[in-house]
Amino acid sequence: MNDAWGFGMTDIKELRENIDRLNRSNTTVSKRQSYDMLMRTVKDIESELEAARKELSVNYDKFESLKKENLSLKNEYNILNNSVHELLKEKTEVEKKLEKISKSRPQLSSADLVKTFSNSLEKMDETVNKGASRVNYSVSSMNVRLMTNLAVQDNELRFQLPGADDIIPPANMSQVEFTISSSAKEPPLSELKDVPEVVGLDVENAHSRLKAAGFVQGEVEEKDSSLVQGTVLSQIPSGRSIAKPGDEVDLVISRITSVKVPYLVGMPQEAAEKALNTSRLVCGMITEQEDSSRQGMVISQSIAAGELADTGTEVDLVVGGPKTEFSAVSGAKKEVATKEESDNATVGAVKGTRQVLSSNPSIRLSPNRRSRFGKE
To answer: Does the chain have fewer CB atoms within 10 Å around its N or its C terminus?
Structure first.
């Protein structure tokens, strides 16, 4: 085995043997042979020694490089160690700040948190129906996704909500999701009332009875039936059931085919038209008759009040109008107005006074002017 210098005990032993052999040689030839062997051994040793020195030089360079690297690593370690100490110091300061901020943040218990959202749900449900609408809306549920910090205090879970100016990474907060649903509160039985039985009554009596019991007439649907028109065939809720006062009661009645004509005389024209529409009748021909004392008022109607008429029947009206004078036009042609001109004057008089040709300047025409309602 070679030692640190590159040659071992075998080479040294061989060198000694060659020296002894040289000393024991008696002849010149043997001495020469011993000498040559000795020189070869020396050269081998020198060669191995030179190789060992080169290897030692390389290893020394490596050792110096390793020393430098070790020194550099020690410096880096010291820098990292200082950085770690600084980070630990900052961590401690941040933890103190977080603890201080956490104590100053508003905290909600689980019960308070749910109550807060539940109250908001009720307010939204109330607000959505404040406007005038024939349809009732309801907010029945709320899906909540809450970013918050969770804390445990007195064995109770607390929700810490960040302030408006807090800048907190989402990763540092907990996400809580839950749904709040509302359900209708059933009124106590003491507040419910019996729904009156109105099946078999006419619709007007049914409406009066429902109103007297504290209920409201809802939708009214008509169906063909052999019963007298306007007779209530069914109701929802049914009679003798219970419901909240103020609830609507929907009715199904036998189809109404004839109605009583309302009394229209003395009404303004517009009010008379509305009364006819409400009674399921149609305003027919409106004739304007000169009567300045009852101008715009109904003077007479074609069907007497109280008489039965089929729904959709036209009722003609005579309405009082202003006094109209037709002035004469003098000139070369002093002839009585032609039939076409007279007709034009009659139609136009519905809107106002119109001048027409007449051979007699003192003539005053008071024609009954007729026009279909809504058409000239």
So the answer is: N
Residues 6 or more apart in contact with residue 309 via CB below 8 angstroms: 258, 259, 260, 261, 281, 303, 315
Instruction: Give the whole-angstrom CA distance, residue 159 versus residue 169.
Output: 17
Q: How many helices (H) and strands (E) does the chain have?
A: 6, 15
Opening angle at CA 213, ends 211 and 217, nearest 5: 40
Residues 6+ apart with CB under 8 A from 54: none
Strands 314-321 and 282-290, sheet pairing: parallel
Q: Is the Cβ–Cβ distance between 237 and 204 less than 8 Å?
A: no
Over the chain (376 residues), the average pLDDT of each successive run of 10 is 50 72 73 77 82 89 91 92 92 81 65 76 72 60 76 72 67 74 71 93 94 94 93 94 92 94 95 94 94 92 94 95 63 40 38 33 35 36
In DSSP terms, 321 is beta-bridged to: 290
Number of structural domains (the chain) is: 4
pLDDT in tens, 111-125: 777 777 778 777 777
Amino acid 237: pLDDT:
92
CATH number for position 235: 3.30.10.20
- Domain assignment of residue 4, yes or no: no
Note the pLDDT tens digit of each residue in 69-89.
999 999 999 999 999 999 999
Looking at 158, 181, 204, the residue that finishes a domain is 181
Neighbours of 251 (CB within 10 A): 23
Residue 1, domain member (yes or no): no
pTM of the model: 0.39
Q: Is 3 within the bounds of a domain?
A: no
The sheet with strand 216-223 has its strands ordered as 216-223, 248-254, 232-236
